Amino acid sequence: MPPLISNQVVAWGANLATTVLLGSLLQTSVQAIELADGTTYFANVPRLENARTTYNSARVFGATYYFTLHVPEDAGEPLQRVMFNQQEGVDSISFNLKRTQAYRNKQKKQLLPIAAASTDEKGAISIFFDPPISPGETVTIGLRPYRNPRSSGVYLFGVTAFPQGEQAYGQFLGYGRLHFYDHFRWPSYWGH
Known about the structure:
Strand order of the largest sheet: 3-4-10-6-7
Radius of gyration: 24 Å
InterPro entries: DUF2808 (IPR021256)
Number of domains: 1
Largest sheet: 5 strands, antiparallel
Low-confidence stretches: 1-28
Mean pLDDT: 82
Helix content: 10-25%
Protein name: DUF2808 domain-containing protein
Structural class: mainly beta
CATH architecture: Sandwich
CATH topology: Immunoglobulin-like
C-alpha cells in the first residue's frame, strides 16, 4: 500500500503551483493601452515626485526650477513628452527654453538629450525626449526662467505626461508648487 500524503504536503504543493503561476504572470511585460483609433495611454501613470527652485526670492536672476518624475516599471510605454502649464501666480513666468536640461536621476549625474522644447499659444511648455524615458527610470527636468516673478507668492505648474506614440494621451500628474518670497527690505532710514 502506498504511503499516505499528508494534507500539509498537498497544501504546500498547491501553494507552490500558485506561486509559480503568479510569478510567471508578473514577469510578462505590461502593455500600454491603445484604443482602436490609435490613441495610446500609460498602463500605470508616472508620478510627479518633487518640484523645487534653486532660488526662492522674487525678481532674482539665475534660478532653475526642477521637476522630478518617476516612470513606474509597469507604465507599459516610455515617457515621450512632459508639458508644464502655469496655473497660479500673480506674474506670468517666461522661460529660456534653450537652457532646459534633463537628468536621468535625482542627483543630476547623467544628462539626457532633449529632442525639443517648445511653447504653445497658451504658454504651455512641452519637453520632448529622444530617446524616451524608459519605464522604471526617474527624470529631473530643469527649466530656466529669465527671472523669478516680480510678485511673491505661490506659483503652481500643472504637469502632464505623454507616452510614446503618434496619438499619445496626456495624463495629468498634479501640480508642482513653488513659493517665492519678497526678501528685499528698504533700509529703515528710507521712506520716513
